[in-house]
Specification:
- The complex is a heterotrimer of chains A (about 400), B (about 280) and C (about 290).
- Chain A contains twelve helices and 14 strands.
- Chain A is of the alpha/beta class and about 400 residues long.
- In chain A, a hairpin with a 7-residue loop joins strand 3 (about 50-55) and strand 4 (about 65-70).
- In chain A, helix 3 (about 145-165) packs antiparallel against helix 11 (about 355-380), helix 4 (about 175-190) crosses helix 5 (about 210-225) and helix 7 (about 275-285) packs parallel to helix 8.
- Chain A is elongated, with a radius of gyration of 34 Å.
- Chain A starts with a helix and ends with a helix.
- By secondary structure, chain B is an alpha/beta fold.
- Chain B has helices spanning about 1-10, 15-30, 40-50, 70-85, 100-115, 135-140, 145, 185-195, 210-215, 225-235, 240-279; strands spanning about 60-65, 90-95, 125-130, 175-180, 200-205, 225.
- Chain B has a six-stranded parallel beta sheet with strand order 3-2-1-4-5-6, sandwiched between helices.
- In chain B, helix 2 runs antiparallel to helix 11 (about 240-280) and helix 10 runs antiparallel to helix 11.
- Chain B is elongated.
- By secondary structure, chain C is mostly helical.
- Chain C has two domains: about 1-120, no CATH class; about 120-240, no CATH class.
- Helix content of chain C is about 80%, strand content about 0%.
- Chain C has helices at about 1-15, 25-60, 70-80, 90-120, 135-155, 160-175, 180-200, 210-250, 260-285.
- In chain C, helix 3 (about 70-80) packs across helix 4.
- Chain C starts with a helix and ends with a helix.
- The chains are: A alpha/beta (about 400), B alpha/beta (about 280), C mainly alpha (about 290).
- Chains in contact: A-B, A-C, B-C.
Chain lengths: ~400, ~280, ~290
């Protein structure tokens, strides 16, 4: 009768506390050596009345200190895909992450951690034999593998396309609409006998948009040299001014008009934001340029510049990757190169292999992202989570 | 009529400045108490997050703005700090912008005094360090090494609250009030994605569209946007402040601009039609 | 000191606002002062909190153990060689370090945050499937109970009651196909089309013809909607800043601060008027 009672109670899972199978302690995978992981299979028929208590110690014989205590309804490996991925079997195994011990007086890390698991039920407690592991920093951060793969693929594509652009500078780049307007604006300025005003933005030479702007300036300067138009390039940064002077000198020389080049066309104004704006506004009001080009990175002064240019009747063409200023340029300028179109315009005009190759590589990257998005959406519609797991970031 | 609209298009902009000045100044001196302010889902999400944290939770507040953004972000910061102190949460404050230091001190001193919060136990102000990304990375592993002293020069290890906080993942929530970069996007990219802490915050109106993507993707919980967001949070904590008081002026300014845009567009199309008919 | 500070704050605010009329000496003074103070403040902060805290104090306490803090100092000093043409090539080492460190920190982080995570969030099912699991049902029941409790406590729909109602409707939308579910699906579809079409617009190595052209035109539409929202938000931000300044003028314009606002406004109008007539006289004489 007692045996029957015991069997009944065993079957209900509320009497005996069993030791779970597969208890293991190991260094946490893919981390900087800050913890170890204890894992074990779930007990048959476990429920909220079963509590797991994980204790730690610096030696096999103790003293033991409680590290974690939780009911059997939680703490599954499926809650930590960062370490264990999304395998379905993770729902059947528990785990606990145990932080590394701080080295004490005279101790040198990393310190071996002994772990013991106790299973506590309302009527009994069972404990596993202690196991140990030493937290060590790992060379490979597994959770970041998908990002690494993407960087490698994109990097390889970029290098390949730069090489291809070096062999064939005629890589196809579509014509940006604003570029036609630039030609028209330069022609208009020549006919009217008025100068062109060219601004490089308010960032230094380390900014990609300033680099793109100086490349475009080179092309504009070539046209200006052939048409014998005047150009004015007020600069915010002294280094940018030097670069602009060099770029323009090169452009005038290569157009066969070295005599027309005037170094004072590119001049430093001030590196104070609103001081620069005030000075450029003054230049616009006095010289009344026929065309104003705003290429580069702009801040809050964008509308001040564009509005003043608008009042003089000039054609205004802007190009910036400053997302917050684009709306103002779009509202007040005749043409605007939006974001990446600025880099594309620079690559289109200069046909420089690094710029061309990078631009096409970015297109490939965009196609890859679109492909992943499309596949991910279709997969999630079909309730296939595999794709979503591949994109998971931790 | 057509001539009237043509003249309207050529109006001296200083008349518009005067009109705008009037609609902002008059309600400031004579509040209208316009009705209709309700908490939006994003602001409520921030409120609920702080409200539902257990008492005594550790919250990192980052003051990432300058005096230019004070009217929008200071009321948000004050309302959130009031909420935190009211819920007896522990606040550790710092900043990624050097120009935010004075405003951070003002918000913290005011709200902690009202809540009778004790420095060192209930709140700590670490100050500013240069480097933004490097600061976040350093805090991710050891805050005491990154900020060995607090803003007043006291040893951080000696502060009771800081003995419970060693690294970023020790915080239950990070709140960033950011006027740009470095700001919320920096905290997310180099902080929460790496060190796994919950993040929320407030930003200026200019940055709301670009921060919305992080709310949509779940990388941050809610967002307090602009002065309106600050007013909504003040409504939730039932402590009207500068943001609520500004809603009249902001609303009237918006109505004025919408009216001017409509009139401007009508004038533009009528003038164009007139020019077309004339040619 | 507070009264002096108030007068300075009001004065400088009004000086900057005077630019709305036209450029004038008050504005020029305020602008120069701002540039100088901002620079000075940053320099002092950098000196005390970077050099003194991170280098000087560290070396003073343990020069032999922590000598390595001089390495980043040396790299920083190399940057300054840019200004000496003969040795400016040395600055390239510092730039290489900065760019390498910056790229190493930035590229994986930005890629994770701005591309992979965003793609993960965007790759959602375009049509929601109701969740019929027990857990979902429990969640709906829990949310309904919370709403009922909130309604019973408040006679009218306050913010708190409304929040519980929204949570119940959200929970219900996951188990049944409701209006909220349909709205959510529409939003997901709009985001999906928006992302696709805008990315199509920014393809430069493909000619925009046929379907690509159609998609990119849709992309421009989404872009313009975004820019309109951004413009509106920026305008809202500027009004908030204006209100902040007006609030300061009101706060410091009272009797406690000796009517600083009123007095300074009158003085400035007087000076600007005098300058206007003086310049007009000069122009007439010229």
């Amino acid at each position: 009768m007692i045996r029957c009672l015991a069997a009944l109670l065993l079957a209900s899972g509320t009497l005996a506390a069993q030791v779970p199978e597969g208890f293991d302690v190991a260094d946490t995978p893919g981390d900087a050596g800050g913890s170890v992981v204890a894992s074990w299979k779930q007990l048959p028929n476990e429920d909220a009345s079963v509590t797991y208590v994980v204790s730690v110690s610096r030696s096999k014989d103790g003293p033991w200190e409680e590290a974690s205590r939780f009911p059997a309804t939680g703490g599954f490996k499926s809650d930590a895909p960062k370490y264990f991925w999304f395998w379905s079997s993770n729902r059947e195994e528990h785990f606990v992450e145990i932080p590394a011990f701080e080295p004490g007086e005279g101790e040198k890390g990393p310190i071996e951690i002994w772990v013991r698991l106790e299973v506590v039920t309302p009527s009994a407690t069972a404990a596993t034999a202690p196991l140990s592991a030493t937290p060590r920093p790992n060379w490979w951060n597994w959770p970041k593998t998908n990002v690494f793969v993407f960087i490698c693929l994109f990097g390889v594509a970029t290098f390949y396309l730069i090489r291809r652009a070096r062999r064939d500078p005629n890589l196809f780049i579509r014509r940006i609409p604003g570029l036609d307007a630039m030609e028209e604006a330069i022609g208009r300025a020549t006919e009217m006998g008025k100068p062109i005003l060219y601004l490089n933005g308010l960032d230094g030479m380390s900014s990609i948009s300033t680099i793109a702007s100086t490349c475009i300036l080179g092309q504009v300067a070539r046209r200006v040299a052939s048409y014998d138009t005047q150009i004015s390039v007020p600069c915010y940064d002294p280094v940018v001014m030097s670069v602009c002077q060099e770029v323009m000198r090169e452009a005038f020389y290569s157009s066969g008009r070295p005599d027309s080049y005037r170094p004072e066309s590119a001049f430093f104004v001030t590196n104070d934001q609103f001081g620069y704006v005030a000075a450029v506004d003054g230049i616009m009001m006095r010289e009344k340029p026929a065309a104003c080009f705003y290429f580069g990175f702009y801040y809050a002064e964008s509308l001040l510049l564009a509005e003043t240019g608008g009042t003089t009747g000039a054609i205004q063409i802007a190009g910036t990757d400053s997302v917050t200023q684009l709306p103002f340029f779009i509202a007040s300028c005749d043409y605007t190169l939006i974001g990446e179109e600025l880099y594309a315009a620079s690559a289109y005009l200069s046909r420089e292999p690094i710029q061309l190759g990078s631009l096409v590589a970015q297109d490939w990257g965009k196609i890859a992202v679109l492909g992943v998005l499309l596949l991910g959406t279709l997969a999630s519609l079909a309730r296939l989570d595999f794709f979503k797991h591949l994109l998971a970031t931790f | 009529m057509g001539l009237f609209f043509q003249k309207l298009l050529a109006i001296d902009r200083r008349w518009i400045f005067i009109l705008l000045g009037l609609v902002v100044v008059v309600p400031t001196y004579h509040p209208l108490n316009l009705p209709g302010l309700k908490a939006s889902p994003n602001v409520r999400a921030v409120y609920d997050t702080i409200e539902n944290l257990p008492e005594g939770s550790k919250i990192l507040v980052s003051f990432d703005y300058d005096p230019a953004s004070m009217p929008e972000l200071a009321p948000q910061a004050t309302a959130v700090l009031t909420h935190c102190f009211r819920k007896k949460h522990k606040v550790v404050a710092m900043g990624l912008w050097v120009t935010g230091v004075a405003m951070a001190k003002e918000s913290l001193n005011t709200t902690s005094k009202e809540a009778k919060a004790v420095y060192g136990e209930d709140w700590v102000y670490l100050g500013w360090k240069p480097g933004s990304v490097a600061v976040i990375a350093a805090m991710g592993s050891d805050i005491h090494n990154c900020f060995p002293k607090d803003a007043a020069g006291a040893d951080v290890g000696s502060l009771k609250l800081m003995q419970r906080v060693k690294k970023l993942s020790d915080f239950d929530l990070v709140v960033s009030f950011a006027a740009g970069s470095p700001g919320i996007d920096t905290w997310i990219a180099y902080g929460s994605d790496k060190y796994k802490f919950k993040i929320t915050g407030g930003t200026t109106a200019v940055n709301v569209p670009s921060m919305a993507q992080y709310v949509q993707s779940g990388q941050m919980i809610g967002l307090i946007g602009a002065m309106r967001g600050g007013a909504e949070y003040e409504l939730l904590v039932k402590k009207p402040g500068d943001a609520t008081a500004g809603m009249d002026a902001i609303s009237l300014a918006h109505y004025l601009i919408v009216l001017l845009i409509i009139i401007g567009n009508i004038a533009f199309f009528i003038s164009r039609k007139r020019k077309g008919a004339a040619s | 000191m507070t009264i002096l500070g108030a007068w300075i704050a009001v004065g400088l605010t009004l000086f900057m606002f005077s630019f709305l009329y036209k450029d004038n000496p008050f504005y020029k003074f305020g602008e120069s002062l701002y540039v100088g103070i901002a620079l000075g403040y940053s320099l002092v902060r950098l000196w005390y909190q970077t050099w003194i805290d991170k280098v000087w104090e560290v070396l003073k306490s343990d020069a032999s153990g922590k000598w390595w803090v001089l390495l980043p100092v040396a790299i920083g000093l190399l940057l300054l060689t840019r200004f000496v043409p003969k040795v400016s090539w040395l600055s390239r080492w510092a730039f290489a370090f900065l760019i390498g460190y910056g790229s190493g920190m930035a590229i994986p982080a930005i890629l994770t945050t701005s591309i992979v995570k965003q793609a993960e969030a965007t790759a959602k099912p375009l049509v929601s499937m109701p969740d019929k699991s027990e857990a979902a049902k429990k969640s709906v029941d829990g949310a309904k109970a919370a709403w009922d409790k909130a309604k019973a406590a408040e006679p009218t729909e306050t913010d708190a009651v409304r929040a519980t109602r929204i949570r119940y409707e959200e929970a219900r939308s996951r188990t049944e196909y409701t209006f909220v579910t349909a709205y959510r699906d529409l939003t997901t579809l709009a985001i999906f089309i928006g992302v696709f079409s805008v990315l199509f617009y920014f393809f430069f190595s493909i000619e925009h013809k046929g379907p690509v052209r159609i998609f990119s035109r849709i992309g421009i539409l989404f872009l313009m909607i975004y820019f309109g929202a951004s413009y509106g938000n920026t305008a809202m931000g500027r009004f908030s800043l204006l209100y902040g300044r007006v609030l300061t003028l009101k706060k410091f314009g009272g009797g406690d601060y000796y009517y600083s606002t009123g007095i300074l406004v009158v003085v400035m109008i007087g000076v600007l008027t005098a300058l206007h007539f003086k310049n007009r006289g000069k122009e007439e004489r010229a």
